[in-house]
Amino acid sequence: MLGLSLHPDALDDIQAIRNRSPLVADKILALLEEVSNDTSLMNELLTHGFGSDRDEKFEVKKWVEHWREGLDLWRLKFWELVWCPVRNFTN
Length: 91
Prior knowledge:
Number of domains: 1
Low-confidence stretches: none
Number of strands: 2
Order of helices and strands: HHHEHE
Largest sheet: 2 strands, antiparallel
Distance between the termini: 37 Å
Shape: globular
Oligomer: single chain
Radius of gyration: 13 Å
């Protein structure tokens, strides 16, 4: 069975976002919950380029710079939040 877990750093980032914009943090958590409850979406979390055409709720890409260094990191971009004004939220 597939499962979705968040790294403690990701949880810290979401908390930092919540401090600036609770609505944005709630949307991130709701979208992550939706993905975690949908087996077909969970299967796409390791498909480089999934959702790039914006036909899906999110886009998945390898973090290429880190892949070249041997790190298995992926980026998940929720299209609904692209407008999000929260930037540099860890500063």
